[in-house]
Amino acid sequence: MIVHRKQWPRAALWLIPAVFFSVFFVYPTAHLIVVALQGESGWQLGAFWAALTDAGMLSVAWFTIWQAAVSTLLTLLVALPGAWVLAKYQFRGRGLVEALSVVAFVMPSVVVATAVSVTLAPDGPLGWLLPEDANRGLGAIFFAHIYFNVAVVLRVVSTYWRQLDPQQEQAAATLGANPLQVFTSVTLRRLWPAILASGAIVYLFTFTSFGIILLLGKYSQATIEVEIQRQVLFLFDLPVAAALSVVQIVFVVLLLWWQARLSDRLTSQQDLAVTDSLPRPTTGRSRIVVAAFLLGATALFAGPVLLVIQRAFTTGSNYGLQNFAALNESRRGSTLFVSPVIAVGNSLMFALMATILAVLIGGMVAWSLSTRPGSARESLWLLPLGVSAVTLGFGMLISFDSAPLNLRGTPFLVPIAQALVAIPFVIRALLPVLRSIRGELREAAATLGATPWQIVRFVDWPIASRALWVAVGFSFAISLGEFGATLFVAPTNNPTVPIAIYRFLGTPGETNQGQAMALASILIVMTAAVVLVTNRFRTPGGRYV
Amino acid sequence: MSEVRLSGLSVAYGSKTAVADVSLQLATGTALALLGPSGSGKSSLLRAVAGLVPASAGSVWLGGKDQADVPTHRRHVGLMFQGHALFPHLNVAENVAFGLRMGKTPRPERTRLVDRMLALVGLADRAGAAVSDLSGGEQQRVALARTLAPRPQVVLLDEPLGSLDRALRVELLSTMKRAFQETGATVILVTHDQSEAFALGGQIGIMRAGELVQMGGQADIWAQPGDAWVAQFLGQHNVLARQSLPAGLLDHGRAGHELGDYVVLRPEKLRLERMESEAVRSDQDWRLPGRVIATEFRAGVTSVHVAVQDAQISTPIAVFVLVDPPGAGERVSVVVPTNAIVGLG
User: Fold this and answer.
1) What is the pTM of this model?
2) Nearest CB to B87 within list A449, A451, A459
3) What residue spans of A437-536 are helical by DSSP H?
């Protein structure tokens, strides 16, 4: 604490985000549930209860739970060897792989679904992985979930692994444990908090997966999130949709609470020793391991999206720009047609507005949180991650259609929805860095003659600004690719690029598929560009996920 | 004129009192080492001098001015933190230049001062290095240079060597003393390590539970600790309750003045005789027969611990021996000259 410093209006830093969240998140979500439960003849709790115990509903819940569990397990299996390489060696290409993993993490679900289906198609490079009669949809879902979430495990586990004091392993070895025994009896147990924490995040993401399931799953393969969308859009059964939303919210809250406890344990571990620098691989075996990792990771992250780009330039058996040229023509004069230039323009405009909003609100939350320890409050702000984007989008649609908050037909609904999805990421990028500016640094500056304003300018800002740029880039990339909520709130005649791709994919015909690939390529380039530029500002403390 | 004057200074955190009614004065260019166990309030006192925590009572005077309404950044104190608190986004030279920049020192002058400070701490060749690339000892040197660069009127050191190994501490301490002499700074050092406090030179202040229990010159504090707690905290040997000693020995030591409830038998003034003898007063000295139970060699001196036969004295008596110390198990007599007995308050 520094004496004589003016007290900042801290209340405002809490109040503005709290009001924003109450109005644009809590209210529409609660409103939707209430509306759903109130039929024309009053409360229809019977229908709600029936929906909760319906066999179809239970099978949706069961599918959601187990597909997320399998996805998480597979992601861990794929990522852990990579985490080991990142934790143990310094090598050329390391930064590139880390950047690519982040690109994969923020790649729009529509694009990933497209890329995975191309990769795993019978004529695709990995078509052989799934036998003809196998359940292709399920395999594709797992592949896509791995693709998204490997970055989470790589980052969380490798950072933690690197900080583990190697003396315990060395002690085990001197006591006669062979390398396998050392790994299973010492290393794995010590890594467990990091594995659980990253696994919990992956489980959360795959549990609430929407775009991937919608585009890659068969009709019988619906997560709660997809089922909500079906019930609302096609079956108009609001009580069932509400029941599903409630189930999902309850489950996600429990999951977030558990995850918060895990990450508290992660940061309170006492036996962490930061290693100075990692060795380069010098032995033949370590070189082979590192090379295999580089090759495998690059192929995993870049392969599928490069394939999409390749397909975008392919018509029949010829290469060319036909698919891009075709983007500007609507063959059947479809009402759903929208010029790609307009879609790209919409996406950029919405993403820009969403980014400004997300960074302002998320920045205020992060600043407030940084002054107190503990992650329970932090989890509260992560809720939008878990609440169905569909619930949110649909809730916003029916909540803001009349005065005083009639936002339908205004350009604000989409950026607000996208900002709500991006805010948790902004908080997680900023919070560790803000927390790392210890009180001591500010005090040191004060004893060196810095005024309170100079402390903000010369200490707080230079340290936090890099993380701020990361937050900006991240919100922008996420807003660009947001699909679930945008699907509901985007004006039909003014869709974003992911919505336009979804429409192309949903319309049969080679030309439409080609146009989807062309548009997906544009989105890939936009997303990758944003992330790679942002990556330059990364600080060791900042988290993406 | 005194550079630092604390008058009845108290610091409280809520209902907990960290510093209680401390008064002291320091002349310009002198050094004070505040010595006390952790939680004794010495760091809080330092922070109150820097204005980082408010005084709950009393006042801080620097250079003859009451600092009550002076914010930290206008106090011209340099505080060197235990954890270095180096700015991670600035390199070595930029860290050292920070205070000069805040004080709007013109650039050529700034460059010159930074170069001088870095040379003083032996880091002239690391000016452009990132602070994260430095070793613990180098970071400490940067912190020292950064603290001294703006020429603060008072330098405050909060356990500055705590995290370093012994050899490095000795080396850095001599660097510091040289730097303080060169800049003529008034210094307050806070530490729980007696050797560090005594190595700084200058005055020693002993703190316990927020209070300044004793302050004085090094030799005085060592020769006459205020009470048994101070003597033990300073690491003195043979601090014994008066009633555990034979009355004859006390009469021998009293030699005309009163002893307190505790006495110290100065191990450097005690002698050992190999032959066994009765516990009798000779012309000059008192003898306590006993048996050597352990010896400990450190820096050329052997501490010989003798279990004396006297039933009242239950703790072994330590005697410093320079040459030819007896081995464990040998029967000896501890010879106690009059001047080896010091009474405590």
Assistant:
1) 0.73
2) A459
3) 439-447, 452-455, 461-481, 484-489, 497-506, 510-535
